[in-house]
Amino acid sequence: MHATVHLMKSRGFPGIRRKPLETLQVNLGYKCNQACLHCHVNAGPTRMETMAAGTVADVLAYLKTSRVGTLDLTGGAPELNAHFRKLVCAARALGVRVIDRCNLTILLEPGHEDLGKFLAAHQVEIMASLPCYSQDNVDEQRGAGVFEKSILALRSLNALGYGTPGSDLILNLVYNPLGPSLPPGQEKLEADYQRLLWEKHGVLFNRLFTLANMPIQRFGSTLISKGRFEEYMDLLVASFQSSNLDSLMCRSLVSVDWQGFVYDCDFNQMLGLPLAHSSGARPHLRDLMEHNLDGNPIVVRDHCYGCTAGQGSSCGGALRSGTAEKALAAAG
């Protein structure tokens, strides 16, 4: 696989600093039951990296000392970590909001048949990847049969109350473009998803979040192989909007890898770019127990243009609404 970090140093992304910390995003391991083309983690069934019990204990200790309000669990498939359920239960007992970044098909895997009920019982918010409402597009990105399995999983979540009117169980979907292009407007695409998933499959959900594909790991390597890496970077740079800088997820989030080392975001984690620390060494979560990160400089490279291009992109979707996008376009 082609490395991309050496291509991320020359385009002059502006310096930014941290705001108060709101979200601890924890990667529980890179093992996954899928191997998607757009995956910036290069996750898959053969990856064995997984967070150990001692590091899970560090995560819980940090939640207690920092009083961070949101725990965002990701992977790979985070549910494949042996300590996933213990972590969820302990975090919820602390009053922490928990988000599970779920690939949906994990709900159908042997040994995980009760996973949906577990998530519902603990009021875990589900952020589910469904890169299109079209079967052909989803199966092209994620593998044959994935769309059908995803629909079955979504129906099972709806049956538990997820995404349904009047329920407190939140089910959000995530869209990624199929190739080297920016996501379409989030509001219109959300309306299309809601209409088509309901009409064709009887599926309900709360929100749709659009994410730009990052030119790193598996997707970045594919761009290099096809000779389109520089073309995609040119698109991201040309679409840069400085107004997105204030809302970037890295300003209020830290990313923790499966070993407990800390980064400004999940993308920096994949590029091996650790959070800046006074010691000059790669910081571990234990090093931050009594450390206030407010004002800390964020490590930036050219892939950061992926979060600031157009309507912007974050783990919570677009940074600007469609209304703001239209106003921006009208202004010139």
What does this structure look like?
With 332 residues, this protein is of the alpha/beta class. The protein has one domain (5-330): TIM Barrel. Helices cover 32% and strands 11% of the residues. It is built from eleven helices and eight strands. Strands 6-5-4-3-2-1-7-8 form an eight-stranded mixed β-sheet. The chain is globular. 45% of the residues are buried.
Query: In the CATH classification, which architecture applies?
Result: Alpha-Beta Barrel
User: Structural class given helices, strands, pairing?
Assistant: alpha/beta
Poorly predicted tracts of residues = 323-332
Provide the domain count.
Answer: 1
Order of SSEs: EHEHEHEHHEHEHHEEHHH
Shape: globular
Give the strand order of the largest sheet, numbering strands 1, 2, ... along the chain: 6-5-4-3-2-1-7-8
Count of DSSP-assigned helices? 11
Can you count the beta strands? 8
